[in-house]
Amino acid sequence: MIVTIQPSTLKGEIQAPTSKSSMQRACAAALLKKGVTIIRNPGHSNDDKAALGVIKDLGADITTQEDGSLLVNSHGVRPIKGEVNCGESGLGIRMFTPVIALSPQTVTINGQGSLLTRPMDFFDTVLPRLGVSIQSNNGKLPLQVKGPLKPATIEVDGSLSSQFLTGLLMAYAAAGAKDVTLQVKDLKSKPYIDLTLQVMKHFGWQVDHHNYESFHFGDPLVNLSTSQPVNYTVEGDWSGAAFLLVAGAIAGPIKVKGLDVFSTQADKAILQALMSAEARLSVEQEQIEIGPASLRAFHFNATECPDLFPPLVALGAYCEGTTVIEGAGRLTHKESNRALTLQEEFGKMGIVIELQDDLMLVRGGTGVKGAVTHSHHDHRIAMASAVAALKAMGNTVIEEADAINKSYPDFYAHLEKLGGTVSLGNGMPVHD
């Protein structure tokens, strides 16, 4: 799909998209908890659909209710087929693999697109120490696992992604881990583990940690076998909303609703970057209002929130001076190598990006030019290009623009609702 963005002024208010981080964790917890869970405000991105497909293939019964909420009835991990597919979801494959390994059945775990090339050798090293038989394709998909996983005190490396730890924490808790400790070294993206622990606590599991270096499993907070149905409301998504907020800083003013300012989501840190750039920002409990100002270059450490790099680059492009973003080393194993794809695509738009070890330098304030860009099949690259296009000199074309469906399928429609001029390759407007 090709989308064209014309220079536009945005105005109005919009509801933030649903958090796929929160949604996918809720799906896993609903499967493991057993009994009935009602998931309110469910997401409908490709990653969300993949998570629902996985728990369905693992035995959960899912019913859509009249109000749009999902009723999940589960008896635990009971695979009904020999293969599950996590789509292109990095969180999905890393979280569900230990969960699937709770079953004594042999299950093949597969994915699609860029997920097929992403490293999974973490499991080759860790799962055999937990009594799980595993075969991989030289550290990549497909994986074949056979449990049951037996919790044990081990040390794991948290430097590549916190998502591996999320899966282990959930699997340990569901297996009734007691008197065992997960030791973790060099954990990255700690706020995402806070989100995992928050979801687990909501579903009745108690996990304590010491400085994110050791995790201990307590008695369940409730009797999980006889507890009442769990009601879980999926949060608004700070990751997707970051693009809306940057769009407001560049081409607003707009109001974004549906975000929890007390959320544990790592990408809430976008507010710090916007304040550092001196955007016109008003944060209230019910809404965030943001508008354009004389933006200044800023310094931001994105090591714990690497998904913010694309919107931060779009913001930096309109800031006077050189913006410095730390944590570029976290970008290699995303849907694309985001450091290089951001450099390439923003280079087409006249913005120079330099990479120096773990730093990304964005030379802003030089003027953004309309250009023909490519998403590299990466949802966040597509959205960053669209946001940068809002005040560019000339139109911007985004090829493979439908990559947004992975996380935020309504993104172009939401831009259009706010007054953005967005059209498909055939010139037709985008509609919700």
Q: What is the CATH fold-level name of the largest domain?
A: UDP-n-acetylglucosamine1-carboxyvinyl-transferase, Chain
Using DSSP, what is the number of strands? 24
Number of folding domains?
2
Q: Name the average pLDDT.
A: 95
Question: Helix count?
Answer: 12
Chain-wise SSE layout:
Blueprint: E1 3-6, E2 12-15, H1 20-33, E3 35-40, H2 46-57, E4 61-64, E5 70-74, E6 83-85, H3 90-100, E7 106-110, H4 121-126, E8 133-137, E9 140-146, E10 154-157, H5 163-174, E11 181-185, H6 190-203, E12 207-210, E13 214-217, E14 230-233, H7 238-251, E15 254-257, H8 270-276, E16 280-283, E17 287-291, E18 299-301, H9 309-317, E19 321-326, H10 338-348, E20 352-356, E21 359-364, E22 372-374, H11 379-388, E23 396-399, H12 411-417, E24 421-424
Parallel strand pairs: 2-15, 3-14, 6-7, 10-11, 18-19, 22-23
Antiparallel strand pairs: 1-23, 1-24, 3-5, 4-5, 7-9, 8-9, 11-13, 12-13, 15-17, 16-17, 19-21, 20-21
Helix pairs in contact: 1-2, 1-3, 1-6, 3-5, 5-6, 7-9, 7-11, 9-10, 9-11
Describe this structure in words.
With 432 residues, the chain is α/β, with parallel strands linked by helices. The protein has two domains: 204 residues, Alpha-beta prism (UDP-n-acetylglucosamine1-carboxyvinyl-transferase, Chain), CATH 3.65.10.10; 214 residues, Enolpyruvate transferase domain (UDP-n-acetylglucosamine1-carboxyvinyl-transferase, Chain, Alpha-beta prism), CATH 3.65.10.10. Helices cover 29% and strands 25% of the residues. The strands form six sheets. Strands 22-23-1-24 form a four-stranded mixed beta sheet. The radius of gyration is 21 Å and the shape is globular.
